[in-house]
Amino acid sequence: MSAAEAQRRPFEAVFSGPVAGAEAASRVAQQLAAGVAVAADVGGTSFDTTLIVEGRPGVLSEGSVAGLPVQSSWVDVRSIGAGGGSIATVDDGGLLRVGPHSAGSYPGPASYGRGGTDATVTDAAAYLGMLGPGTLSGDLALDFELAERALLPLAERLDLTVTDVARGIIVVSTAAMANAIREITVERGHDPRQASLILFGGAGPLFGTLLASELSIGQVVIPPHAGNFSAWGLLGADDTREASMTFLRRLGEEALEEADKLVDELSASLAGLEDSDAELQVTVDVRYHGQEHSLNVPLPDRSSDPQDRARVLAQAFTEHYRSVYLHELRHELELVTLRLSSRSASGLRGWPPHRVSPKPARAEPLKAHSFSVGSDLEFQAVERSAVEVGDWVSGPAIVLEETTTTYLDAGFAAVVHESGCLVVRSQGTAA
């Protein structure tokens, strides 16, 4: 939007960071021909996840921030307090909790050496060896001794070893993330086991194989420059304009004729359609007569037979309703709201190509905890820039790069796709 538009409607810029990540992930889903994908951004404070179907993130007609309603189109991003800086505590019942409070960047996790004393997800991962040598972006070197010192009070209170507590923090965080993914998939009629999981953010790739095991997901995708991926999505986002109007009518030929006239009126006022390359999408909110909530489906093309259009629309709604609610009703259908959107390509259309280092650098093997085996194993440390397109890396391995660390547990393998994405699969399905 323009600065003037942002001044008039600033609420439309709310949550733009997570939405930028969803936009970038939708491009990846298109490249990999992933019909259903889940985008997950794991940073320092939160886990933001979005369902992407046929290359487009889900959009709602309203949302809320801090309990306040936002009456605008809303990319359906769900957030929970689970990230690298999330603080682990023991509640009054003696149970281990992770988040929602975060140590932030300053003082940050104890292992940052900036004065933080609370045990965080990063401290647990560092202690377990999941972060490899522990040198992060900006030449920040993790202090493993400080990580252990922060974990020790939790271990004493729970009467567990430090390793058990560190493992527990990662397992609890993974479970919370998996539940958030189930919410956005199952409640919208999709089986998460059939989806591709696109992970990014500084801490996202750390949880790839853990989430794959928890959700039985067959393919995990780590895009290039995962730590900066949302920024790339913002720079490459399409120019999208929208218009909508309430249109309460019983479904029928006459209602569709009226809808066509209203679409023409809305199209004339929709900015951006002067661009000959703009893609126009027309949808309508439909519900069973007597219900409060509606579902959004495409409005059939007006060039088809009027009676056939009504039938096609009814069929599309019924199938959508059945996929979400697992049943259907025999009630009449009514149209509720017409929605138009125009989308024009703008910004960056791709990321820098995958480049292999002239002299591939591989760090020495290191000890790290394997969740699939339940004990420490020797992990190979691999520089991502040293792996060529088409080459496989078999776990247990830790893939190192500037903006993130990919933890590849035993039983998994990763290959560099021609797009530059690192595609992780169970070794039983890798091919």
How many angstroms separate the termini? Answer: 44 Å
Tell me the helix content: 25-40%
Please report the number of helical segments: 9
| Sheet with most strands | 9 strands, mixed
Class based on secondary structure composition and strand pairing? alpha+beta
**CATH uppermost class of the largest domain:** Alpha Beta
CATH architecture of the largest domain: 2-Layer Sandwich
The CATH topology label of the largest domain is: Nucleotidyltransferase, domain 5
Q: What gyration radius follows from the Cα positions, in whole Å?
A: 24 Å
Q: What is the domain total for the residues?
A: 2
Oligomer: single chain
Strand segment count: 25
Principal-axis shape equals elongated
In CATH terms, the superfamily of the largest domain is: ATPase, nucleotide binding domain
Proportion of strand residues: 25-35%
Provide the low-confidence segments as ranges: none
Report the mean per-residue pLDDT as an integer. Answer: 87
Give a structural overview.
The protein folds into two domains: 1-237 and 349-431, Nucleotidyltransferase, domain 5 (2-Layer Sandwich); 239-344, Dna Ligase, domain 1. The chain contains nine helices and 25 strands. It has helices at 3-8, 16-31, 121-127, 144-158, 162-186, 208-215, 229-235, 253-269, 306-325, and strands at 36-42, 47-53, 56-57, 59-60, 63-65, 68-70, 74-75, 77-80, 86-90, 96-102, 135-136, 140-141, 196-200, 219-222, 239-250, 279-288, 295-298, 333-344, 362-370, 375-383, 392-394, 397-400, 405-408, 412-416, 422-426. Strands 1, 2, 3, 8, 13, 14, 21, 24 and 25 form a nine-stranded mixed beta sheet that branches. Strands 15-18-16-17 form a four-stranded antiparallel beta sheet. Strands 19-20-22-23 form a four-stranded mixed beta sheet, with no helix packed on it. Helix 2 crosses helix 7 (229-235) and helix 4 crosses helix 5 (162-186).
